[in-house]
Amino acid sequence: MDAALNYITQAVRAGAQLVCFPEGYPGPSNPAHAYDGLSPLREAARKHGIHIVASRIQPAAVGIGHHMCLHLLDPGGEVQGTYRRTTPEGPYVYKDIPDWQFEYVMGDELPVFETPHGRVGLLVCSEIYTPELSRILALKGAELILMPAGALLNEMLPPWRTMVWARAIENLMYTAACQNLFGVEEGVAIIAGPEEVLAQSSAPGVLVADLDMDRIRWLRGQDEKIEMPKQYRVVPGTLRWHRPALYRKNYAAW
Q1: Model confidence over 214-239: pLDDT tens digits?
Q2: Does pTM top 0.85 for this prediction?
Q3: Reduced to 3 states, what is the DSSP secondary structure of residue 199?
Q4: How far apart (Å, rounded) are the C-alpha atoms in residues 199 and 123?
Q5: Residue 90: left (phi > 0), alpha (psi -120 to 50), or beta?
């Protein structure tokens, strides 16, 4: 908790208004560990007047097992909303990891949260491999998706960074990812927009970038024009290309 609070202080000094921690951080992320990882962050959100995304496991309301949760804390220190990991389908997730000692229960909601900084969606770790999730959030209005990951991405880092940016490109939104570091891997911290990667780092610490939400809204409202020079570095207006009847027809056939 001391480290988490120190990261928040560093981020605020760098101008951050929305802070996102990795999956399961500051926890707890194991039922054998009993401590309150949320209250100190709620106090920090109030103190600094910022939004914070914190992660922990939470007992499932029905049956045995736990959800992997992301909590969005508002500047008043209240839990504005919670996202419970939906993918992959349970009960198995990472049983080969000694620290993952709980029965994973999947959620079934993809909420979008209104904030003064834009509409925020949340996804967890390898859900980035399911582009439908990001697209649904975009169609529900999300302008920024935070994708905190667990750890040990290692050899998967190059495609992982590519996917973070790809989700931003195809959905005309900002995306950001971070992960825990245990000293045996490099990090995946990256903040991407549809037209460029704003910042990335492989080292421990705080990564900050300025997001231009007006630019996202402009890109979503434009149509592609055959002109030189172009006013954009990505095809604009692509969310309006959505054809649900076509997808339903072909998915049913498949």
Answers
A1: 999 999 999 999 999 999 999 999 99
A2: yes
A3: strand
A4: 20
A5: beta
